[in-house]
Design brief:
Number of strands of chain B: 4
Keywords (chain B): Ubl conjugation pathway
Largest interface: A-B, 52 and 47 residues
Distance between the termini of chain B: 53 Å
Protein name (chain B): Skp1-related protein
Oligomer: heterodimer
InterPro entries (chain B): SKP1 (IPR016897), SKP1-like (IPR001232), SKP1-like_dim_sf (IPR036296), SKP1/BTB/POZ_sf (IPR011333), Skp1_comp_dimer (IPR016072), Skp1_comp_POZ (IPR016073)
Order of helices and strands of chain B: EEHHHEHHHHHHE
Pfam families (chain B): Skp1, Skp1_POZ
Number of strands of chain A: 8
CATH topology of chain B: Potassium Channel Kv1.1, Chain A
Number of domains of chain B: 1
Number of helices of chain B: 9
Shape of chain B: elongated
Structural class of chain B: mainly alpha
Distance between the termini of chain A: 73 Å
Order of helices and strands of chain A: HHHEEEHEHEHEHEHEH
Largest sheet of chain B: 3 strands, mixed
CATH superfamily of chain B: Potassium Channel Kv1.1, Chain A
CATH class of chain B: Alpha Beta
Strand content of chain A: 25-35%
Largest sheet of chain A: 8 strands, mixed
Strand order of the largest sheet of chain B: 2-1-3
Family (chain B): Belongs to the SKP1 family.
Strand order of the largest sheet of chain A: 3-2-1-4-5-6-7-8
Strand content of chain B: 5-15%
Chain lengths: 217, 167
Amino acid sequence: TMDILSLPEDILRKIMRTLEIKDRTRLRLTCRAFEQLLASTHAGFFDSGSFSWLGIGAAGAMSAFSLHIGNAKFRRVEDSEVALFPQLIPRLFERIQFRKFKINLIYNPVSLEYIRQLIGSFNVDELEFLVGANFHLETAVKIAADFPQSKYIMELTYMPLEESFGLIPPMERLSISTEAPQMPTRIIIRLLAAHKELRLICRHLLLTAGGWRKVMQ
Amino acid sequence: PNVKLVTSDNEEFVVDFRIAKMSVTVSRLMEAMNMSETDDASLLSNSIPLPNVTKAVMARVIEWCEKHKNDEPKEEKENDKRGRTTHVVSDWDKEFLKNDEFGRLCQLMGAANYLEIKGLFNDISQTIANMIHGKKSDEIAEMFNIHCDLTEAEKKEIRKKTAWCED
């Protein structure tokens, strides 16, 4: 039987980018050469991925960590291991490409630096954020700035302060779900001008006839 | 019109012009040698040397090309988007490759890489990925004749760090 490692490196690199993530983790265990090869190769193109905290678990928030890369899920880990996780990722691949990657910042207790480390080797066509508070909005805006080639989608589950809307870079789609009773017409006009698509999911939203007229104009 | 291809062991293969053009390497060489489909004399008087391919492997390559000569050209995705989810090995190709032991598969892959026949290369690459898929590390090591030089402590450490990846 021929030794797979005797294949030229350019061929091995091309094979590496066809592997599933879970197969990469197993291949790492076969020998040092594969461990090094995997860490220095592109993991290929994945249709989707996501990073979130599923909620605050009984053992503390850290227990609900969840990272999806294609069909592979990384989750249910001890608090102590979560801190090490961003170091694992660079050992599985050098870069990875996603069509769509979603970052759920709601309940998410990790720092901006943690997220930057975690997704620093990612190329993303469309980066989506789920944001539930102002300090998470700031995090999302900073992460978006790290991905200047990406398109962005953002879903806000709260009503930000008016000045915070100005921080948000142009979105392919900005959705706002809010219980807030009023949204000034000038904000709606501003958002319509800044973003390709605006979705307002407001149970109690009050917009006067005059306001609608302005928006339509 | 036909094109003559000569392997490293001096075997001459006469193939249809369309089949020769499936290899980017052969296409380039024909261009460099001013060989054209409409110029029979240029095709008859020249042969393309392929010093990195043996007779046995060339026969397999031509068999694959014969089957795929009428395929629609595939849209080329940008570099970062190639691989993994984009390539599906057809039933015929699975059948074509299934009896090759790993060494022969590697030789065929080397030839596809040298000849720049992307479809064949991707088929074999995906076939190898499929061979790896779902297997335990020691099964992969045995299949590919890999000698493990990691210590038990290192393996334990890697296992610990990758234990989070679930189905």
